Amino acid sequence: MKFSAGFHRYFYGLQAILLGLLGYSAYLINDFYRLTHEIALLENNRFDMVALANELQQSSDQLTLFAQNYVVTGNPEYLRAFEQVLAIRNGTAPRPQDYHATYWNLNEDERAARHSQQDGIALLDIMATMPYSEAEFALLHLAKDQSDKLAIIEKQAFALAPTDKEQAKALLFGEAYKEAKHSIMAPIDQFLIVVNKRLAKNLQNLHEREQSLANSLPLILGLNALLIFTIFITINWRFIQYHRELVDLSMKDHLTRICNRKYLSEFGPQFLQYHRRHGNKVCLALMDIDHFKTINDNYGHQIGDRILQHFCKTVGSRIRKTDTFVRYGGEEFVLLMPNMTAEQCAPFLEELCARVAEHDFDERRKRISYTVSIGWVDSGHHYDLDTMLHRADAAMYKAKQSGRNCAQQGDCSNPKPTLAISKSA
Hints:
The protein is of the alpha+beta class.
């Protein structure tokens, strides 16, 4: 069984389109998840970048708080806290885990219990690992430098505090100190504005691309589903055709391309019972090509096969569309003719005999004449296939005995068949 070239092209075309769509879908899905990952990473980076900027501000505020408290109270705990904040920021002291603004509001026992110590690393070194732009990092570096300069002023106040507390307080509470403090906070504030604006724009672009992909994915996946369904329907339709063709092959004679004996055995009884129920007469003719063995012996089996095909073509051109023409075996053929009476059948079959005799087989400038003997019966009151075949066979024997090339009617009035009669070709 061969599929047509057109079907192959159509099916392979569908497969190619499906593979293309599946590949494109995989690309879109991968791109969608990549964008989702980028968005999550950008959100995390924004949080970390802002948190580090806040830590810089936090350290500056804590240094100011501890410096002012030490100058006012003279409590050495504030001086130690000041030096520890500065050391943590510069990376010369261990860095507490989860180092937040609340850290210095806890007592030492709570700090030790909740915030384990990690290796010391300078705040600027941590910032250098983050994806800041050069301008953003420059703002943070500037704020850090200004905070270091302010720490120098604060240390000067510490030196004055034991001997001249008022002068020390003037250093930490005067307008110059406020201006220095402003020089720290201004770059941090500018940084927060710039980085939030940049990252917000990047996030918006990523979200727009993500939304665009999210909108296109259902369409692409829907096309995939439609194409898979189309391929499934195509395959199913083709296999239905394939099954029909296989059934057709099993019911057709491969040489003459007319129905075969299996078809007659399976559908003949149904055919007869259908017409019996509807009160239609049916005539059955059994045909046998005369002296066919002699033709095979004289001309070869290939010519014999060609004559069988020629005979089927000759008969097929004369019968009706409602008639059923069957190769019964070898050179024997059966013709079922519904809605035909005995009065109509007799002249039709005689004319068919004459037509076969007139249409010689012409092969390579050799004209081969052949004839056919026909035995036939009408259904009468009996629509039994085996009975009709047996009676038609007996009638065909009579036609052979009568000189061949004629049609003889058999008697189908007796439902019980007689013994089979052997006949010569």
